[in-house]
Design a protein that fits this description.
Number of domains: 1
Order of helices and strands: HHEEHHEHEHEEHH
CATH architecture: 3-Layer(aba) Sandwich
CATH class: Alpha Beta
Strand content: 5-15%
Strand order of the largest sheet: 1-3-2-4-6-5
Radius of gyration: 17 Å
Number of strands: 6
Helix content: 25-40%
Structural class: alpha/beta
Shape: globular
CATH topology: Uracil-DNA Glycosylase, subunit E
CATH superfamily: Uracil-DNA glycosylase-like domain
């Protein structure tokens, strides 16, 4: 990893954590961190924007939506401390991107190899719904990360992340989102869509462990240039 690039990513992280650009999000994340959920009342919440997490030399970038109020907004690490994160990191462990299947807190020993986890919005939004203005205000952080990383494959979790990624990466026209949809990009890069790892999808069986594992196995193959033939987008409803 180029030390200059690593330093630049650290600078982005510092700016993310210090950001107070969106009044509604600042108010909400700090309110949640003060009132807390009863089961976490003894914990100190992070209550700030959440930086990206992973391997700076990653070939695969995973893009979520925004931190969960009592997940990453509590722990300070992407997809950490809630069931969505449990589902995601267990899959990353099974597919060789994570050294352990659990993600409970910063400092728990979790390491990613070849993967970077980020999001278009870095503060927990009320009802998990950022506004268009909040999305666009936060977008430069993701743009700068993607420009610094040498990624080959991008995995958006859900339609929100897919739309933002396609916009940043210049995909025109944008194919309809679906689980497993593959979009070839210039320079031998790819987007592979996945349903979001929210409980709404995982508890109902819309997204299963084998489905998510297949996306990451495919992502690794494409990142290595193995079988780089696009699969047709399935007729799947947006998630």
């Amino acid at each position: 990893m180029d030390p200059t690039r690593a330093t630049a990513l650290q600078e982005v992280e510092a700016e993310v954590v210090a950001c107070r650009a969106c009044p509604r999000l600042v108010s909400w994340r700090e309110l949640v961190a003060t009132e807390k959920r009863a089961s976490f009342r003894e914990e100190e919440y992070w209550g700030r924007p959440v930086p990206a997490f992973g391997d700076p030399a990653a070939s695969v970038v995973i893009v979520g939506l925004a931190p969960a109020a009592h997940g990453a907004n509590r722990t300070g690490r992407m997809f950490t401390g809630d069931r969505s994160g449990d589902f995601l990191y267990a899959s990353l462990h099974r597919t060789g991107f994570a050294n352990q299947p659990h993600s409970a807190a910063r400092g728990d020993g979790l390491r990613l190899t070849g993967a970077w986890v980020t999001a278009p919005v870095r503060c927990a939004p009320p009802a998990n719904r950022p506004t268009t203005v909040e999305r666009d205000t936060c977008r430069p952080f993701l743009e700068r990360e993607l420009a610094l990383l040498d990624a080959r494959v991008f995995v958006p979790l859900g339609g929100f992340a897919y739309q933002v990624l396609c916009s940043i990466l210049g995909v025109r026209p944008r194919p309809r989102f679906g689980h497993g949809v593959e979009v070839p990009l210039a320079g031998g890069r790819w987007i592979i869509g996945s349903y979001h790892v929210s409980q709404q999808n995982t508890f109902t069986g819309k997204l299963t462990e084998p489905m998510l594992d297949a996306v990451f196995v495919r992502a690794r193959a494409l990142a290595l240039g193995v079988d780089p033939q696009p699969r047709r987008a399935r007729s799947s409803p947006p998630a």
